[in-house]
Each structure stands twice: as C-alpha cells, then as structure tokens.
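FIELD: query
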Amino acid sequence: MHKRKAIVSFREIEAIRWEICKQPTDVQPEKAMVDLLSIAPAAIDSPDSRIASTLDPATLDQIILKLQPSPEAPELASQSDRLYEPALTAIQRLTAVIAKLKLSAPADQSQTSEALMPYVSEEAQDVLDALHLAPPIHTISSPFQQGYFWLKSLAPWLLWGIARSSYGVMRLMEGKTAQVLQANESWQTGILRLVACLDLSTSYQTHSFDLTTHQLNPSVLSADRLMALPDPSLGRSPIFIADLLDRLTEQVCYTTPAIVPFLNNLPVQLLIPHQNWHSGILQLRLGLEFIPSDEKDEDAPLQSLKPLIQFTDTTWLEQYGSIIAQQQLDCLLNQCFRLQRTPESLPESQTLSSVVEEVCHVIDRLQTSLTLASRNIPHTLRLDDLAFRLLWCWMHSAYEVMQLMSGIRARLLQPRSAWETGILRLSVSLNAQTPEQDWQLDLITEQSPDVDRHPLPSDTLVQSDESQWCQQPNLLEHLQRQVQQQIETMTPEIQLLLQGTEVDLQDDEPWQPGVIQLKVSFEWMAD
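FIELD: result
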C-alpha cells in the first residue's frame, strides 16, 4: 500500500507521525496550551467510581461517549437545506447593490447600514418578503449529536472540521517553518505545528490528548509569544500567538458551525471498560507546538523537482474565479440568513436595517475570507503544490469525501464474484501532459497512480461501517453520484479541472504548451 499523507490519513490516526518528530532526540519541543474560548472546563459530579489516574492510548480507543442534550449548531448548507430560491435571489440582488454603493462611495463617507438604508430600502423589503414566504430550514447537526459513539471516531471528524477551514490551516497542521521570539529576545527558527487537543474532564481530573498523535497531556507555546510565519494568509507577521489562534478559531467556527459546541464545554456521559458511567465535559482546544532547529535537518525533504505550471487560458481563469466567488457568496448568505427558525418569527426578529447589516457583514467577510483565498489558485506554481491545494478543496467538500480519499475498510461484492474485505479508496490524480512528457500525481499518496489496477464495475455493491454513505449495501455508482453532488454543491470549481485546461509547463526544458486534468476513480485493495 502506498504511503499516505499524514494530514489526511485520519482513518489510521494512531499511526500518524509528523515529520517534525524527526528532530534529533536532544532537541525538546517548546510548548504550552491556549484555551480557545478562555473558559475553564467545568467540573461536575461523577458516578461512584473514579476515572483511572492515567489513560493510555489503548484505553482511550475503548471509551464510549454520549452527548448530553444541547442546542444544535447549524452545519453548512446542502442541496436539501439551502435558502428558499426567491429569497436567495433577492439577497444576491441586495448584495450587488450594496457592494456597488460601497465601491463608489467617497472614502470619508459613512458606509454603515443606517447610511445605506435610503438607497436600498426597496431591495431590503424584497428580501424580507421572500424570507417571510420561505419554508422552515432544517439544519444539519454533527454526526455525533445523537446516540452513542466511540471517542476514537470523534478525532478524525474534529480534525477534518479544523483542516477544512483554510488551506493555510491544513498546512499548519502538517507543520511549517516559522520563527518564534524567545525569552532572551532572540528569534529562533524551527517547525511550528497546529495542535488540536481534546480535554476530557470529570469532577476529579482532566485528561488531555493530541487528536493527531494521541499524545497524552500535550502542551504548546504560551499565548503571549510573538511569532513570524512565511504564509501571509494566516495573518500579519509578526503576530502574537493569541491573535493567530483567535483568527483561526473564528474561521473554524464560521466554516464548520457544528464544531462550535465542542469548543465550549460540551456535557457528555462516558463509559470506560471496567468502570461505571461518568458525567464529564469535552472541550476542544487549539495550540501551537514549536520545535527549534539550529541546523538544517538532514531528513528534510528535497526541493520539489516537479514541473512548474503556469495557467494561460484567461477565459478559464475568469470562469474559475467567478465560480468560487459566487459559491462562497451563496455559502455566506446561507449561513447568515438560514438562522431564522420559522417564517412567523421574521417580522419581530428581522427589520430592514438588520437585513442590510447582515449583507454588509457578508461583503466584509467575503473580502477577508480565508476559505475563498484557499480556493484561488496562483497563476504559477509547481505540480505538487497544486496537488496539495486541490487535495484541500476535495476534503473541504464533505467529511465522507475525506474518508473515502483516505480509504475506508469495507466489504465488496462484484458481479460474478464472492464477497471480499479490504480497503476502498477514492483515487483522485492530477495529470499534466505535454507532447513530450506526462506526469501523474495521486493527491493523497503523492505518487503515480497504479496503472495495473482495473476500474471497479459501477454495479458493484459496497458496504462499510466507517462511512454513513454505505453503512447499508450500496451500489458503487450511487456512491460516485454522492461524491459528485457534494463537489458540485460545495466546491463546484473542481468540475472545471475535471474537464481540463490548457497550461504551460516547465521542467528541465523551456516552457512547453500542455494540459492538466483531474481524474477520479475508485480503487480496491483486497486483504
């Protein structure tokens, strides 16, 4: 089996070992923890037996949880719960008018919702009327809102919710070169990694573990440290750690609202083998781990030798950018206006000024959106850099898509064959071709796809306990259709890359005309 990228191999989370762990053993990571919401875990009474004083990773994998009743947090809109179409059209029209007014207004002129109201009252009233006629919106909760589940199954979903917030966040979870201001006021270069820590608290004690490495009681840099990152999309540089984490937290909450309860002391019931039921609190926290490096790491990866790609089709680039901007605008509008529970509540809770204020917020949010910046592709970059950006776009679309790309354990029945067990994986490869050369790169493995693998028939039956999409036997063609629907809804720009586009490529030779294209298939690795 191919070696997988650590950031996406969530299915085998216990096997993940970050590249930064390759530092010499005499270099100790400098760490401390930052509470995202500045709320200390609340202690509550537990049943008559205490949680063991220490929990090893094997025990963590056996813990069963049940969430206590709590208000549901809305998830991203899907095809089934998007805004009422006339309402969305009216909001888009109001957004266009406000954006035009903001662009043409003098710099010293107020652009508040009150100042804009005389110019957009008619459009705002159309929005209110459309929202009043809209049917109730059914929000989507997290897959862990109901019933009992394994603690170990929660980790990959939380990691996905964090990583999908932006391309820069996903790269930071993998580890990036950065500088940190030390106590002696000298700058130290090293590897900085975003750590997602889950606290499990009872009235007796708190257990914390790194969701990626399963390391117990991790600690990270203190919030008052100053650091410099080479990636400007994550914030100005230098920046205090507290400010960076606040920015990242806000983006995570806005991108995946269903993750919010886990950031804010979520009551749970838990059962550990050989113990009674306990009441407890779950809390997700983020921090930054820093490993100083005085010398060049001999194990550091070599500079990319993949070809350089330059997008040349201006029409294609304009269409690509337009699709991203429109989809992101629709997404932000949905998130703002789908919070209304019933049409009857609109006259009291929504006024013309509040509608205009929401739209102004959406426009400002669009201009600073890390998600939008992540989906835009630089005009010139290397093949492996493009592959990693596209990997983020795919996994951003849905948790189930990320699972399939990492590989799920499944049972499979092909026509005229017996049931088999093994790993089913959605293989997405980026192909770049010139008249003289051909490159193929799997987005997950960073290797050339296995040409000896035969495509699975579309009438193959698939069943897996690891994916909600096929917990019951499902045809492969239905699974393919679900993937396609998620891409069309959440990251529609991917469709343009599935069709392909003209580019210029440069390797050892001068620039040559060529094409790039994404290719998708399911591969099966039988036991």
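FIELD: remark
The mean pLDDT is 78.
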